[in-house]
Amino acid sequence: MSLPPEKASELKQLIHQQLSKMDVHGRIREILAETIREELAPDQQHLSTEDLIKALRRRGIIDDVMKELNFVTDSVDQELPSSPKQTVSFDKQSTLKKIVLGGKAFLEHLQEPEPLPGQICSTFTLCLHYRNQRFRSKPVPCACEPDFHDGFLLEVHRENLGDGTRMADSTTMLSISDPIHMVLIKTDIFGETTLVASYFLEWRSVLGSENGVTSLTVELMGVDCGTLGTESKVSVGILNIKLEMYPPLSQTLSQEVVNTQLALERQKTAEKERLFLVYAKQWWREYLQIRPSHNSRLVKIFAQDENGINRPVCSYVKPLRAGRLLDTPRQAARFVNVLGYERAPVIGGGGKQEQWCTLLAFLCRNKAVREAVSVDHADLELTCLCPQVLGLKGDCEDHANLLCSLLLGYGLEAFVCVGTKAKGAPHAWVMTCGTDGTIMFWESLTGHRYIHKPTNPDGPPLAEQPKPLYPYRTIGCVFNHQMFLGNCQPSDAVETCIFDLNDESKWKPMSEEAIKSVCAPGATTSLPPFPPLCASTIDASVTSNEIEMQLRLLVSEHRKDLGLTTVWEDQLSYLLSPALASYEFERTTSISAGNEEFQDAIRRAVPDGHTFKGFPIHFVYRNARRAFATCLRVSFL
């Protein structure tokens, strides 16, 4: 495997530092002088490289160096985290080697034929997250027995345990309760992705296994996607997994000790969840006593995840730092805006299916880039701009939870709002409260921002009232990772609401201690850990050029069917790029820039007697044929 120049330089520097620390250069000079003096004749003072290596090996210098160097190598398919991570460590660390040996009993694909070499077929991809580390397997063809053969190295030592040069012992690792979250994704031949299964693997059974090696059979259950909510009770397949501690454990625990620890943790978690449920029921009774009409408001305390487990809504939000992937809150809003919107599918109708996703399942459902396509009405010239961005699919609640988490990471006081839009459709959006009292609504599906100015329903009829520009109709509750507040004002209409969250006569709060007991990081073993955001693995420039060539071919074929010839003007295509960049900048910052230069360049490029017409269309997918079909349906053309 070849390394990038900057990584190779970093690796050389680390090795040089360690060799200097061990004074290897001085020891080599001493051995070189000793070898020349003792083993060579007086008339032969030339020493070959092979002679020197033999002398170093004979005196144990090479063995000493190799013992000091401990390489912790991530899987080549691991996604890069947003924060820089050193890939070579010279301290002893505990790592868990996880090997997926294959799958079986994926009966949905029992009748699928063996794909021919080079044939495009549906694939499975296994995504993993453990303690701020993310991995992704190689895609394998969908089959009844998918051929998974991937290995991953997961660091399991806990930070700040004391002596950094000492490996964590078995007892210490037994106290690390973070599970390995595995998500199985299916990608069809058109590039569309589907969440197949989500599973939390308890890895600590390996601590009680002989030689620190154990094999597991994991049954993956389907995700809830129907009105009956029974998909999570149906098996979709089985994975064979091998776990191995590296380096081998010096002392293994008895299986009874491991099982006792796991049982105590489950008992403690169950008790915390029971107490919170009792408190939530009492809070709800008190809320209804304020006003019986509160029963019809959208006050959502629990939400069901993809595995059909009811979790407090506050557990779906946590301050999330994007590193250098997203520079500003508005850029974060634009990022979330371009993620694909997809309602949870419903079997047999019956309205909107309620399903919230854990963050890893949401992030892994799709990886794409967003495209901006500019179409010239005169000659159907198309130019693609593909910013290197992670693209996903999810419902409005998933978008709102992610945007709220990102805004919290930027230090804003952000909340997820649950209410309705026009015609009473349930909806979720984000609200931030400024230090000056300004209330700002953020629509996660469009990236639009709205300042909230309440109207006074008791004001004089002729008094001028602020006209709301936002699409929201009612609001039932707001929450983040620490707070949950139910709207107890006489009217739940957004336009008349006062967002003074400290006024308990308008907003009934839940106990922050009660929320912390089940939603704080590490509070319960059942709480899904938050994964880091990762940079896109897609080369934006290469992908942009590929999409442009595909679109050109589609345009040429379409015009040929109409009896028209097609001539491409590459210079005009290039001149459209600044306009697309300007559109993207305006969407992100609400500031328009560079329009004067673009207009001047177009006027110079368009011949006399010709007219230039064009407008941008934004897509959240990379399917060129689908994008072209959309362009043909646009009435502006």
Automatic annotation (TrEMBL):
Domain Centrosomal protein of 76 kDa C-terminal: 537-635
Compartmental location: Cytoplasm, Cytoskeleton, Microtubule organizing center, Centrosome, Centriole
CEP76/DRC7 peptidase-like domain span: 392-510
Domain CEP76 C2: 95-250
Sequence intervals crossing the membrane: none
Presence of keyword Cytoplasm: yes
Keyword annotations of the record: Cytoplasm, Cytoskeleton
A Pfam family hit: CEPT76_peptidase
Classification via InterPro entries: CEP76, CEP76-C2, CEP76_C, CEP76_N, CEPT76/DRC7_peptidase-like_dom, Papain-like_cys_pep_sf
Keyword Cytoplasm attached: yes
Domain (CEP76 N-terminal): residue spans on this chain: 10-69
Signal peptide: none
Family: Belongs to the CEP76 family.
Described purpose of this protein according to its UniProt entry: Centrosomal protein involved in regulation of centriole duplication. Required to limit centriole duplication to once per cell cycle by preventing centriole reduplication.
Record protein name field: Centrosomal protein of 76 kDa
Organism expressing this protein natively: Apodemus speciosus (Large Japanese field mouse)
